[in-house]
Amino acid sequence: MTTIDTSAAAFLAGLVTSLHCVGMCGPLSCSWALSGKGSSFMQSTAAYHAARLVSYALVGALAGTLGAMPLSFFHHGAGLVLPWLLVLVFIAIGIGVDRWMPRFSLLAAPLRRVQLAAYKLPGTSRAALLGFATPMLPCGPLYMMFGLAMANGSAARGAEFAAAFGLGTLPLLVLAQTQLHRLTSKWPPGTMQRVQRGLALVAAVVLAWRLRGTLDFGSDAVPSCCHAGL
Questions:
Q1: For residue 119, is it within any domain?
Q2: Over 80: is that where the pLDDT of 134 sits?
Q3: Cys-Cys link to 11, which of 54, 148, 168, 209 (CB 3.0-4.6 A)?
Q4: 227 located within any domain
Q5: What is the C-alpha to C-alpha distance for residues 207 and 9, in angstroms, rounded to an integer?
Q6: To the nearest whole number, what is the mean pLDDT of the chain?
Q7: CA angle, corner 208, sides to 78 and 60, nearest 5?
Q8: What total number of domains does the chain contain?
Q9: Does the pLDDT at position 4 exceed 80?
């Protein structure tokens, strides 16, 4: 799978997992957006998501750096490992396993301090700080994607992967922030969860079908859908 294809899969994962954000509306994703209107609200929205994407990329870069050494032990590197890990992630989301992932309580206290500090700031600054703190949220799918960023094997690819995931969450999060009350009244959390799981399973099947040729481990050649030299 090429870098572009891997990023596209990360973007798709963002679209799928953002359904959870729309249904549950996490404490950082909408807490500053409930009463905002007009141009100042749009500036705050832009600041929130720009800071969020930068933060995702930084965490992805760190994860990719940490994962470079372990991946050096694989013959085909991230080009073969990462796509199948993405399949497993989609399956985990599809059957609801992500709900049982541990939440890092270590981040709870720092997150509360960030929130308290943010609410003392003016709108745009508050939104930017909350956006930058999004990786601290106790979110199973988010943790999984940051973990997968390690399998990219470099800081640059880890940052690209995490940023692509963040971009995938953007459309529905913006919709939730601008149309929150309307969405929650028409799409209850249970419905959103069923749609999310169905889309995740479809994505897993499609991605696995595209990767079926990479299961020929008897060949010494790197599959054409994978990075050469990784």
A1: yes
A2: yes
A3: 168
A4: no
A5: 8
A6: 75
A7: 35
A8: 1
A9: no
Q: Are 207 and 83 in contact (CB under 8 A)?
A: yes
Q: How far is CA 64 from the centre of its chain?
A: 15
Of residues 103 and 40, the one with the higher pLDDT is 40
Other C-beta atoms within 10 Å of 19: how many?
25
pLDDT in tens, 141-190: 788 888 888 888 789 999 999 999 999 988 888 877 776 555 555 666 56
Please tell me the distance from the alpha carbon of residue 151 to that of residue 109, in angstroms, as a whole number.
Answer: 29
Domain annotation covers residue 41: yes
**Which pLDDT score, from 0 to 100, does residue 60 have?**
94
Long-range contacts at 212-220 (CB < 8 A, ≥ 24 apart):
214/80, 214/83, 214/84
Q: What angle do CA 133, 155, 9 make, to 5 degrees?
A: 80
Q: Does 230 fall in a domain?
A: no
Residues 96-107, mean pLDDT to the nearest whole number: 68
Which residue range forms the structural domain that includes residue 168? 3-213
